[in-house]
Design goal:
This protein has 139 residues and is mainly α. Helix content is 76%, strand content 0%. The C terminus is likely disordered.
C-alpha cells in the first residue's frame, strides 16, 4: 500500500511539474508530510526525478529551435561547481534546518509569484490588454 502512495505522490508531482508549477514545490512536501520521508531523501528524490524531465524538455526545446547555445559554457560551469558545493553544504545540515530552509524558500517564492502576478495584472490594466502574451499581428 505504501508503494501506491509513493507512486501517487510521484504522479502528482510530475503532473504539476508538467503544468509549469515545478514538481519539486509539491513533491517534496508530499513526500515529507504525507509519506514521512526524511527531508534529505525527499530533496534527493526530487533532484533525481528532475533529470529525465529536464532532458526531455531540452530535447523538445532543441527540436523547436528554442535553445540559444551562445555563452552556454559560462552558465554550465558555475552551475555545476555551485551545485556540487551546495550538495556538500546541505549534507552537513540537519533535516530540520533543511526543512525550515525549504519552507522559507517556498514562502519567498510565493511572495515573488504574487508580486509578479500583481505587476502583470497592473500592466494589463494600464495598457488595456486582454491578457494575451501575443499581439494579433504575431498570430
Amino acid at each position: 500500500m505504501r508503494f501506491l502512495i509513493y507512486v501517487a505522490a510521484g504522479v502528482l508531482g510530475g503532473v504539476l511539474g508538467g503544468m509549469g508549477m515545478g514538481g519539486g514545490t509539491v513533491l517534496i512536501p508530499i513526500l515529507t508530510i504525507f509519506c514521512g520521508v526524511e527531508q534529505h531523501l525527499a530533496q534527493s528524490v526530487n533532484l533525481v526525478s528532475f533529470l529525465p524531465m529536464a532532458l526531455f524538455s531540452l530535447k523538445v526545446h532543441f527540436s523547436n529551435g528554442l535553445v540559444d547555445t551562445k555563452g552556454i559554457l559560462w552558465l554550465i560551469l558555475p552551475a555545476v561547481v555551485l551545485s556540487a558545493l551546495g550538495g556538500f553544504f546541505v549534507k552537513e545540515l540537519s533535516g530540520e534546518a533543511l526543512r525550515v530552509s525549504f519552507g522559507v524558500f517556498l514562502c519567498l517564492l510565493a511572495v515573488w509569484q504574487a508580486y509578479a502576478g500583481a505587476k502583470q495584472i497592473a500592466q494589463r490594466k494600464k495598457t488595456g490588454g486582454s491578457g494575451n502574451r501575443e499581439s494579433p499581428e504575431d498570430a
